[in-house]
Structures are given as structure tokens and as C-alpha cells.
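Agenda item 2: coenzyme A complex prediction
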Amino acid sequence: MTHQGRKLHLEPLTEADLELVWEAEKRAYSHPWSLGNFRDALKANYPSYLLVAQPQPSDTSRRTSTGHILLGYWIAMLGVEEAHLLNIAVLPEHRRQGWAVWMLESLAAWAGAQQAQWIWLEVRASNQAAQQLYRQFGFAPVGNRKAYYPAGQGHREDAVVMSLNLKLRAVQCQQPIGVANERTEHESTK
Ligand SMILES: CC(C)(COP(=O)(O)OP(=O)(O)OC[C@H]1O[C@@H](n2cnc3c(N)ncnc32)[C@H](O)[C@@H]1OP(=O)(O)O)[C@@H](O)C(=O)NCCC(=O)NCCS
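Presented output:
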């Protein structure tokens, strides 16, 4: 697929790219997963995908084992009729270009293909960027988990639990163009 003039695709995370992803993780988060967390996800066969692009002449960053540029990644797990998003990140230099939305689309397509009806996730209460992304995608906040995340200096931070009803989303995506336009116009008057 081509997006923003770049050819990109998802490829499964393998052992060969674990260190590269961990380096990305440390740049993406204040409290990153450990290398062991990524290894465990692979061992558990959790669906783990890299969003990669063909390198451009200006790209100087380290290549993946398949010779691509790493833009981001997502890792999920499957439950009974639901998927749980465990990690999603876009490298800082590639943000605000729609890559996270693109990855959420791929997650929703994967989850739908597994007969999941819901996607669940937790997000730090302070992570307004991610919450805005999820809300824009159709997730709704459904609760809080107190002191869920480490926050440094012995403190903890709450998680906001969010869910996406995949069936509802599929119906909304199938609305005739006229109806979708009406909604956009209505929302833009708020
Ligand atoms: C959150 C994150 C994945 C977003 O990735 P991204 O590729 O920049 O997001 P997109 O370009 O697809 O943005 C889609 C929408 O999300 C919202 N959004 C994304 N970043 C935002 C920010 N910094 N502030 C406010 N809204 C933001 C906007 O509504 C945006 O649409 P717009 O660009 O048209 O305004 C990225 O910032 C990241 O990797 N953060 C660190 C890791 C993280 O927090 N992961 C989530 C853990 S729960």
C-alpha cells in the first residue's frame, strides 16, 4: 500500500528485529517495555506487527532485518470474542502522519477476522495524545484502573480503560456517503 507517498506494509515481528523494536520502544515511552516483555509476547504467539516502509534516500535510520524503515508497531492478544491491544507506538520522527490510525485499522481488521467483537485497551490517564487517537478511532472510555502504571519515584498512575465495538464500527463504516457527510457537517458545527 502507498500512503503519504511511501510504500508501506505490516510484517510480523520476529526475533531478528527484537532489539530494533526495543530501541524504538525506549524512544517512544517514558516507561518502556523491557526486552523480556517483547520476547514473552513472541513466545506467547501474540500477534505482533511492525509497520515498515521502503527506505528513501534521506532515511539514515537502522533498517529492519528485511531492509525496511521501522515506523511503528502493535502487539495484541486474543481473548474470547475480544482482542486486547497491549502496545502500539509510532517512532517520534514519524508521528502525526496518520500511521497510528493506519495501524489501528489493521488491528481492527485482524481482530474482526478472528471473530472478535470488541477491542480493549488501557492507556495512561495523562496520555492525552493516545486518548485523542483512540476516541477519534471510535473507542469509548469505560472505566479506570487505579494505580495501574508505574510513574517514577515510587508513584503510580491510573489507567483509562477504553473499548471499541467492532460490529458497531463496521456498521458505521458502511453508512452511505451522504449520511457520513451529514455527520461530519453536524460535528463540525459543535
Ligand atoms: C499515540 C501515538 C501512537 C500516535 O501516533 P501518530 O502516528 O502520531 O498518530 P496519528 O498521526 O495516526 O494521529 C491520529 C490522531 O490522533 C490524535 N493525536 C495523535 N497525536 C496527538 C498529539 N500529540 N496530541 C493530540 N492529539 C494527537 C489526533 O487526533 C490525530 O489526528 P490529527 O493528526 O488529524 O489531529 C504516538 O504519539 C506514540 O507512539 N506515542 C507514544 C506511545 C504511546 O503513547 N502509545 C499509546 C499507548 S496506550
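Discussion summary: Residues 177-190 have pLDDT under 50 and may be disordered.
Owner for follow-up: CH.
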